[in-house]
Please model this.
Amino acid sequence: MRTRFRRKKRHVIASKWPETEPDPTDIAARVRYVGSPEHKAYPSAAGPPRPRPDATLCDPKYKGREEELSGYLKEAIRREVVSSQFESGFPRYVWLWLEGVLYEARHINGPHGTYKAYALVDEAEYPKDPRRLLEGAEG
Model:
């Protein structure tokens, strides 16, 4: 049995869409969820599983549903539930609620707009949300 490590607390903030970035609808059209083997306990499109000790494992019920999950990611970006940090023209972090669980999507591949996502299992991991953006994104 592997030991569960705790992730280091981060100070990420859910913030208003930066005026210096392109329209969220344009960015949403170019992103997709690809997943990551470090959050899988089963083989996936991302490759054979290679879970990290501190990684939240993906629920197997989402296996093979990358297109559907990409749709949720796109919707969260259109709703502007993102961090102010951008990488290669994409929000570094995007948050979305799925079946009552808050997920954090992380931009992983430079100019390609690909993301992995993982459940935030502890409210202490939730981003700071002074504008209460996460409340409007639930559902």
Observations:
- DSSP finds three helices and eight strands in the chain.
